[in-house]
UniProtKB/TrEMBL annotation:
Name of the molecule in the record: SusD/RagB family nutrient-binding outer membrane lipoprotein
Keyword annotations of the record: Lipoprotein, Signal
Entry-linked InterPro entries: SusD-like_2, TPR-like_helical_dom_sf
Pfam annotation, one family: SusD-like_2
Signal peptide boundaries: 1-20
Length: 510
């Protein structure tokens, strides 16, 4: 009985201390903090946004499907990319985009309690950009039910038009937060894009608004809404990104260390020791792009977009192996599977890759794109209160493209009065076509997803079909990934039968 009593006493004592939640809690790792400070999450989220599984990958496929890049014949042809033989197991950017969005939402939800309110505005800007890109890739997506963790395990999908419209007030909120909460000086290093400059974040927000609004410009019944929102941007007063690009990282962030290089440099350029990556031989500039640049006398930009045949001279970084004359630049037909080897075709040029320059910024949005958005807005809606003319914005877009590409000795102003269609405003009878054509050139190497979206919206320029495809059908979107079908199947099925070569997004009207 005495032994039995001891067992009872021991059991009662154990039960008592077990009421303390922390006792024997096997789900708590004593070596990790229970949560993370929003500034650390924000910095990591910004960096993650540009990874191969996020923007870098989406920009790569967009560069192909917009007719800017193709594949060299040093590899077996990628039929998913160039014969359009892809399924819901290909091009899954969905999972990583939503994972990235969850981090930005964490910052938004926790910034107040950590006295880091200055991070809410930038996080909302990034949230809007990522959701816009998700719509442009997939159409209807979870939005109002998204980013709620275990509270909503099977989020419903929102109509893509509604998501686009919701992004404008989200960016309004972001600007209000930015104006009300200047960065604390001790935390400016957490901001890998603008180093705590809230004015530039507000300008970025307005520039994204213009992208979202102009993307809808061909949708019936949207004109009044678009004009009203553009006028609101002008009234708000922060302006737009101009004279510089929106870039992440740069010399103070990327390092010559494995895993810490600029992701573009790391993928298609060189490793931390300067050894050329195998994938340096993969992307080629298309014959359509190179031939058009030559035909229009646009060789200064051509020599920045591409290296001459044979690629970069490893002993003279930033300079082609062969003489940089027009005859030594040869584009590859889109989807060609033989006859175009790395040695006799143009590769990604010094505007993107130079040996040793591992710490260039990763560009999220170019100033040229913003100017062409303003040009189209003024050309379509002459009564909006934007202060410039369609022509002045168009010409500024060309100048900004020359700057971003690093062209020396020219700003592109020589095309004014040249009489060249789609270069000289006066000589271009179809002004919207000229804007679309110049934007397509300016986006080359920097914003492939945006180039593909604009190609789908405008059908310009008229690029050749892949030689792997017998008809003229082209990808209009991605399939919902099989991972989403597995975890949220009923809501995926509710979107109907998706045909990636026939199911258009709402802004792709023809």
């Amino acid at each position: 009985m005495k032994v039995k009593s001891l067992f009872i006493i021991a059991f009662v004592a154990l039960a008592g201390v077990a009421c303390n939640k922390s006792f024997l809690d096997i789900n708590t790792n004593p070596n990790t903090l229970p949560t993370a400070s929003p500034n650390y999450v924000f910095t990591n989220a910004i960096n993650t946004a540009t990874s191969v599984s996020n923007m870098l990958g989406a920009n790569e496929i967009g560069s192909y499907w917009s007719g800017q890049w193709t594949q060299s014949n040093g590899y077996i042809i990628n039929t998913a990319q160039f014969a359009y033989n892809f399924t819901n197991g290909d091009f899954n950017y969905w999972d990583n985009y939503y994972d990235n969005l969850q981090d930005f939402q964490f910052v938004i939800d926790n910034a107040d309690s950590y006295n880091q309110k200055f991070l809410k505005g930038p996080s909302k800007v990034m949230k809007a950009m990522l959701f816009q890109q998700l719509v442009d890739m997939y159409g209807n997506i979870p939005f109002t039910d998204a980013l709620k963790g275990s509270k909503v395990l099977a989020p419903k999908f929102d109509d893509q038009k509604a998501v686009y419209e919701a992004l404008i007030p989200l960016l309004d909120e972001a600007i209000a937060d930015l104006k009300a909460n200047p960065f604390a000086s001790a935390f400016t290093g957490s901001d890998l894009i603008f180093r705590g400059n809230t004015t530039k974040w507000a300008q970025f927000a307005n520039s994204l608004k213009m992208r979202i609004l102009i993307r809808q410009s061909r949708v019936t019944g949207k004109e009044s809404y678009i004009k009203t929102e553009i006028n609101k941007i002008v009234t708000e007063g922060s302006g737009f990104i101009t004279g510089e690009d929106v870039g992440l990282g740069g010399s103070t962030f990327y390092l010559a260390t494995a895993g810490k290089l600029n992701p573009i440099y790391d993928r298609w350029g060189y490793d931390a020791n300067g050894a050329k990556r195998a994938l340096n031989n993969y992307p080629r500039l298309t014959k359509f792009l190179i031939d058009n640049l030559k035909a229009n006398g646009d060789t200064l930009r051509m020599k920045r977009i591409a290296y001459a045949n044979g690629g970069e001279n490893g002993s003279n970084p930033g300079v082609s192996t062969r003489a940089e004359i027009a005859a030594n630049y040869a584009g590859t037909p889109f989807g060609a599977s033989s006859g175009y080897l790395p040695a006799n075709t143009t590769s990604l040029g010094p505007s993107l890759l130079v040996k040793g320059e591992f710490n260039r910024p990763f560009i999220l949005m170019t100033a040229a794109e913003v100017q062409f958005l303003l040009a189209e807005a003024k050309q379509r809606y002459s009564d909006v209160t934007l202060p410039g003319t369609a022509q002045s914005y168009f010409e500024a877009g060309i100048t900004q493209s020359f700057r971003t590409l690093g062209v020396k000795g020219s700003t592109g102003t020589e095309f004014k009065g040249s009489g060249i269609k789609n270069y000289d405003w006066a000589a271009s009878s179809n002004k919207l076509e000229a804007i679309a054509y110049q934007k397509w050139i300016a986006l080359t190497n920097f914003s492939g997803l945006e180039a593909w979206s604009e190609y789908r919206r405008t059908d310009l320029p008229v690029t050749p079909q892949s030689v792997q495809v017998v008809d003229n059908k082209r990808p209009l979107r991605f399939y919902y990934p099989n991972t989403e079908s597995g975890s949220n199947g009923e809501n995926v099925k509710a979107q109907g039968n998706i045909d990636a070569l026939a199911t258009r997004l709402f802004w792709d009207v023809d």
